[in-house]
Amino acid sequence: MKIFNAKQIYAADEFTIEKQQITSDALMERSAERIFSWVHSRLNGAAVKIHVFCGIGNNGGDGIALARHLVENGYSIAVYVVNYSEKRSKDFLINLDRLKERKLWPEFLDSDCEFPEIGHDDIIIDAIFGIGLNRNPDNWVAKLINHINDSAAFILSIDVPSGLFLDRLPEHPENVIRANHVLSFQAPKLVFFLPQTGGFLNQWELLDIGLDQEYLYKTETEFEFIGKPEVLPLYIPRLKFSHKGSYGHAVIVGGSYGKIGAVNLAAKACLKAGSGLVTAFVPGCGYFPLQASAPELMVITDEEDDIISKISMSIQPSVVGIGVGMGTHKDTVAAFSSFLDKNQKLLMVIDADGLNILSSNSELLSKIPKQTVLTPHPKELERLIGEWKDDFDKLKKAKAFSKKHDCILVIKGAHTVTIYDNKGYVNSTGNPGMATAGSGDVLTGIITGLISQNYPPLYAAIFGVYLHGLSGDISSAENGYEAVTATTLLDNIGKAYMELFKRPSPENEQQQ
């Protein structure tokens, strides 16, 4: 699903209005009807007080139109117009007149007014600012937003929480609505998924307001949101007469004394993701643990017992995943450098200490093969691309780094973002339970296993991140967030594959 910026959303509105031969007011009415249907299906006429706070632009027009539908259906509402400017949008004024025709007169709020009293059991509709906000709210509006946030009432924001910009951080985070739920039109907004802005909302849903499909399909975006519809076309089915050699031979290189478990997890994940053969290359101390815990693996050992000092193997792997638990001993750095020198065209996934070695020895970056997949957590990413001032700057620097080194960056987080060719792919799966030791090792193994099966590296990264998160969602559903471990992620990779092809039950289809 494409993630459109503000300029593209406005263009989609204009394109739809022209192609469908409707007025902008009719499109606003369509939006209001969708919001009302959502609210009404959940409240079903409940006797609860609803406070509708409207700005004087088109977001406020949506709120005013919604208020009309609410009052026509018997809801107890109060409507407030936040008078922050002398300018009014045309469609806001049209809907204001329609509201007055229903004998409902809004209360106009300005800089010297008293704010309305709001009960903690009430509901607030936030339609103050929309996606077009381009400056900080006036002080008195900021105080109103604080008043709304302090009310402890349920807050439903229209399109985006008021006070939140789409392309930069708010200068004063306390002056942004903290929404319990957001109803966003047609497509999600990038700010829903970034660590510094996603916290302004708990949940979001999309409302289809009938924006023209031709525009939505043809318009290129910088980011896409990856869900099941985007992942399913990437899946490569297995053929009846295939054999283990059909699905590649992956090698996981890593481990050091006390950290053989990282290789164990990555190698098992590689197998469970579907690699035909998996070999682990580890220090001598890892031989017996791996042979005992994973009989499906083949194991090659380094000359040294505690560290990797020379990466040498007689096999020709399809792909190598390297770095998990590997350490940064000087001999290991030398071995890694030499390995890169000899394998300029080998498909590769680099994680953990492999990334730390690259960031400490930047000259090695020129040696990594094209379309190598790098999977850094936030601190590893910072060491690679440098410090950033905010999440938007982070994405900009990540894109520049990816382009410079022709690599695929998997930026791990609550919504992992995969970066390549100036585009970002935002993952939809995963949960807080996955913040646990070894989770990243499992991801490395999954991506390596997919590449082994001839998935292109970018597709393997996108699909692998999705599968990893989905196995985490299954794990948390069965065990709770706190009991999710890397081992439970491994155990649920197969279930994650099966989940991809589950059809909704007839009852769920009827509800949808």
Task: Record the SSE blueprint.
Elements: E1 2-3, H1 6-19, H2 24-43, E2 49-54, H3 58-72, E3 76-82, H4 90-101, E4 107-109, E5 123-127, H5 139-150, E6 154-158, E7 179-185, E8 201-207, H6 213-218, E9 223-226, H7 228-231, E10 249-253, H8 260-273, E11 277-282, H9 287-293, E12 298-301, E13 319-322, H10 330-342, E14 347-350, H11 353-360, E15 373-374, H12 378-385, H13 391-405, E16 408-411, E17 417-420, E18 423-427, H14 439-452, H15 457-479, H16 486-491, H17 493-500, H18 506-511
Parallel strand pairs: 2-3, 2-5, 3-4, 5-6, 6-7, 7-8, 9-18, 10-11, 10-13, 11-12, 13-14, 14-15, 15-16
Antiparallel strand pairs: 1-9, 16-17, 17-18
**N-to-C terminal Cα separation, in Å?**
19 Å
Order of strands in the sheet with the most strands?
A: 1-9-18-17-16-15-14-13-10-11-12
Structural class: alpha/beta
Strand content: 15-25%
Oligomer status:
single chain
Helicity range:
40-55%
Strand tally, please? 18
Q: Work out the radius of gyration.
A: 27 Å
The coarse overall form would be elongated
Low-confidence stretches: none
Mean pLDDT: 96
Enumerate how many helices there are, as a single number: 18
Largest sheet: 11 strands, mixed
Brief account:
This protein is of the alpha/beta class. Helices cover 40% and strands 16% of the residues.
Name the descriptors.
alpha/beta; 11-stranded mixed β-sheet; 18 helices; 18 strands; 7-stranded parallel β-sheet; 40% helix; 512 residues
